[in-house]
Amino acid sequence: MRIGYARVSTQEQDTQLQTDALKKAGCEIIYEEKASGSKLDRLELESCLKSLRKGDELVVWKLDRLGRSLSQLINIIEEIREKGVEFSVITENIDTSTPSGKMMFHIFATIAEYERSMIRERVNAGLEVARKRGRYGGRPTALSERDKKMAVVMLKGGATKGEIAKHFNVCRQTIYRFFKDKDN
User: Is 51 labeled as catalytic in the residue annotation?
Assistant: First the structure.
């Protein structure tokens, strides 16, 4: 039986292109997932791998849909090979039931890992440039320095943390976290 696995990285993305290609390739069952390829705990992938039986074939649209690191890809392929399951990739025309397919798998897996490393390197370089220009990423703080000082005064004056949160229009957890961090 041909079993497909389709994955996109974010909730905004859609697996339709992949599922259409997997159906056209003859997949009877298709597991779909919205999760980063670098994550190791992907529930649908785990379910897919558990469902595979001897003689089945796991099919993906592109190699990077299965995993992002070379070691992760090799581990998955070895796991399914031990079960007697073959593996194929539609866009790269890889079929691990043949010697050339096995070789192509290793070449493309190495390229996929290299590409991921290059993306990470470019992102880190961009963040460093932004930091040098005084820009920092991340979520803005909910309380300004002035608000924090006022919160301390309010607490000393007898206000509850819930009242302080309401006054600054933030959740109580923000105030609890601020005072916890302040005490450490």
Answer: no
Q: Are 4 and 27 in contact (CB under 8 A)?
A: yes
Round to whole Å and give the CA distance between 43 and 64.
17
- Is the Cβ–Cβ distance between 69 and 98 less than 8 Å? no
Mean pLDDT over residues 32-50, rounded?
88
CB 23 within 8 A of CB 12: no
Q: Is residue 124 part of a domain?
A: no
Q: Which position among 9, 36, 51, 117 bears the catalytic label?
A: 9
pTM: 0.58
Cα–Cα nearest to 81, from 105, 107, 63: 105
155 three-state secondary structure: helix
Asked if residue 132 lies in contact with residue 146, where contact means CB atoms within 8 angstroms, the answer is no
Q: Are 22 and 108 in the same domain? A: yes
pLDDT tens profile 83-126: 999 999 999 888 877 888 778 777 877 877 788 788 889 999 99
Residues 179, 91 share a domain: no
Q: How many domains does the chain have?
A: 2
